[in-house]
Amino acid sequence: MTIRLFNTLSGRVEELSPADGRTIRMYACGPTVYDYGHIGNFRTFLQVDVLRRFLRLEGLETRHVMNITDVDDKIIRNAAGAGVPIGEYTPRYEQAFFEDLDALEVEKPEIVARATEHIPSMVALIERLAAQDSAYRTEDGSWYFRIASFPAYGKLSKKDFSGIADGARVDVDEYDKDSARDFALWKSPKDGEYHWQTELGPGRPGWHIECSAMATEYLGDDFDLHAGGEDLMFPHHENEIAQSESASHTTFARHWFHVRFLLVEGRKMSKSEGNFYTLRDLLLKGYKASAIRMLLISVPYRQQLNFTFEGLAAETGAIDRLRTFHQRVRTAPTVSALNAELASETARAGEVFCEALANDLNTAEARAAVFDLVRAGNAAMDAGTLGAENVPQILEVLSRFDRVFAVLEDHDVEWTRFALDWAEREGRLDQVAPELLAQRDLSDEKIQALLDKRTQAKRTRNFALADQIRNELAEKGIVIEDWKDGVRWKRK
RNA sequence: GCACCGGUGGCGAAGUGGCUAACGCGCUGGUCUGCAAAACCAGUAUUCGCGGGUUCAAUUCCCGCCCGGUGCUCCA
Asked: Which nucleotide shows the minimum CA-to-C1' distance to residue A380?
């Protein structure tokens, strides 16, 4: 199937295909590991995950590189504040980042590259630029990229810098560089800052150079796709293009994928608005990892998603319904005759699912197709017309769905427990929802004992006692369901 | 201020120059139940921010306005 995706560079929806016919070589800007990731960060990583999962569903391979920025101004500042070297400061946040990705079922890229482990590649790239006068050194020993040397500058973000590129020199004294727009490739150390001794002199890399160097090292001078949040378009990605193409004299990335920012409760997310949430904040409030994933991927990546707690609750319900259906299809009684109408609805759901994703990753339409199948399937099961042959067909579509959405398998309880353990270690139990805290002291055995007591009460028609036990458990977030074959319960 | 994107039912949203405007959640009713819960079924926008225009026909195209968001000195 032809996969069509919006390309920021051309401003149009275009076919995405691997240059070599089978492997998509892609680079996605990763995190700066100075703090815990927030839901805005994760929307981007999740949408890239949806893309790579879909590419693989379509039979392509992926060679996906993600960088870890483990040296930059914020890290240096925070590490200094904590009184530790940056090499001791960043690993815990990098680890936390990957734990969060695990909780969100984000597949790990084939290659994860740390900036601090690729200094020689960056130095080599800067030297190549310097050799052709695209880079220059300033008084203090820093190196800058000369934007005037790259006429195409601005082609990604559609900005016109021709006025500057004309060679008109801006005030040199103020910036100590030739043009105000020129950006740092290599920063000389200020009073005792951490630095590397290199052929360029002592210093540390600028932010943009790490991505250029690592992308090229693992993917070659030109590759298929480059991804990131919309804010990175300018200047970060523009600068990557300038550096890389100046050095290689070929196209850097052919396709550029940018994920839109989200709103939280209708407002832009910011610490001052009080609507800034990390993944862990939400888990401790009692929201499930799967619901967070579902909400963040269900709105197509170019739309401005409004992230709300009501939406989170809605997705929890939607996932329950899907999981219940999945289970029901596997265990429902069947008849020998194929339900032809259901078979054709199943086939259509499978087709629409892939077509929607192939059409610029329309996740909303894709999941709608699956819910259509859920309704049709349930109706057939209610009517007792589910054919034995219908079952594998439906399961195949669900499997297809889940290879991209990854929400059918229930790992929610373990991730919530993980977050609770983390909160305890960090002394953050005060941030945990009371319901979750109450549940912590409630072992499965205790719950079972209470349920037995309730069943006994019901048997003697002592409904007042039975309901009292049910209410007590409900207050602690334990939901009871009386089924024909016995009592089931779950942690809400 | 300049540039770009969006404004669809109670909420999140898909979509299209003309077919009953998807889907999820919620809500209402029903089946089931001691009552619930869960599950299932049914119903739930004469209408797509506001005003004008183009057209046989606009939510869908154009113009203006209002509102939200993003970028314009490294926030996904």
From this structure: B40
